[in-house]
Amino acid sequence: MAQPPAAPPAKGRAKTTELPEHLKAYKNVWVFVELEHGRVHPVSWELLTEGRKLADALGVDLCGVVLGPKAEGTDQAIAEAFHYSANRVYAVEDPLLAEYRNEPYTKAMTDLVNKHKPEILMLGATTLGRDLAGAVATTLQTGLTADCTELAIDADKSLAATRPTFGGSLLCTIMTRAARPQMSTVRPRVMAMGDPDRSRSGEVVRESLGMVEDEIVTKVLDFIPDSDTNQAQLAYADIVVAGGMGLQRPENIQLVIDLAQVLGAEYGCSRPLVQKGWMTADRQIGQTGKTIRPRLYIAAGISGAIQHRVGSEGADQILAINSDPNAPIFDFAHHGIIGDALEILPALTEAFRKRLS
Ligand code: FAD
């Protein structure tokens, strides 16, 4: 059978792993401060906290990037970026950036990068951040590692971006050695958020967008906020109670919901419960669901598979309820109850109800 011709090398793709001379001028760590309708997504502060460690390891500045209309919310985002340890903020303030649209945001970000040359650029792996990161990386023809779980500076000063691979059974570390900036996205709650220092301030560098409405294909006709008030707010919950296949029947999910209600907690589950249609996908905890960082995580009838562990081990305290003393969840739980979750969950609910009433 005839072999198809080999694909020509992609235009502009780097052929060496050495950093070309002209890219050696790229310096500083940048974090995209995600602002939507006047509110900053907290992942931005988590990334600035992480970015501070990277900037210190490299001996460079930490900078925030704020894109939005000139408004109170934008001023607030700039001020807060300093509180979360940015030395400098690059801001593009333009009415065309009032609603997120890929074209003006990509232009604003790529123009800033081309002019001010950061060596690292980090964005939250949110819906907005994922959309923007991909467009910026392809426009700049640089490397982007998505959904990183760990970021570090390598011996040669490259960014070592670690993320799960092969269905979460392995971790791989990816380097962008021949292009700049080195880009990465990180999901909310994967990195810890530091305490703000309200006394800090810094330098603001303002640039213009240089675009008119006619150049933008996408038009926002209306913004309709999500009306589903039952949507899970797992990522930023203080207490989370979750159930796994150990619950055995869909009606037993109520035992998890009851305990969550008494504790004022959010409730979630392991992936098989979503696959069975027992809970909605927004309640799944783990690698392909939400990453949580509550003060307390109660996991009932969950084995603790690696894909569940990566999304939950950031909790301050983990209480596992499992009938199998050898369940992997006991390897990373702080407290364990070996027994039947169907008996222990209602007993805990009753005990907390009495104590908290
Ligand atoms: P099981 O593994 O069946 O464990 C049930 C546990 O309940 C056992 O430990 C058992 O001892 C215990 N038990 C049984 N009866 C009782 C009882 N009466 N009382 C107390 N304990 C009892 N999983 C996730 O959770 N989140 C993810 O994001 C995720 N992403 C994935 C991505 C990929 C690419 C793949 C391949 C898998 C992913 N998984 C994920 C699935 C994961 O590998 C596990 O299969 C899953 O977490 C197992 O769920 P479970 O612990 O509820 O069920």
From TrEMBL:
InterPro entries the record matches: DHS-like_NAD/FAD-binding_dom, ETF_a/b_N, ETF_a/FixB, ETF_alpha_N, ETF_asu_C, ETF_asu_C_CS, Rossmann-like_a/b/a_fold
Residues the entry annotates as binding FAD: 270-271, 284-288, 301-308, 322
Gene Ontology molecular function: electron transfer activity; flavin adenine dinucleotide binding
Domain Electron transfer flavoprotein alpha/beta-subunit N-terminal intervals: 29-220
PROSITE patterns cross-referenced by the UniProt entry: ETF_ALPHA (PS00696)
GO biological process, one term: fatty acid beta-oxidation using acyl-CoA dehydrogenase
Pfam families, per the entry: ETF, ETF_alpha
Keyword Transport among UniProt keywords: yes
Keywords: Electron transport, FAD, Flavoprotein, Transport
Cofactor: FAD
Cofactor note: Binds 1 FAD per dimer.
Family: Belongs to the ETF alpha-subunit/FixB family.
Protein name: Electron transfer flavoprotein alpha subunit
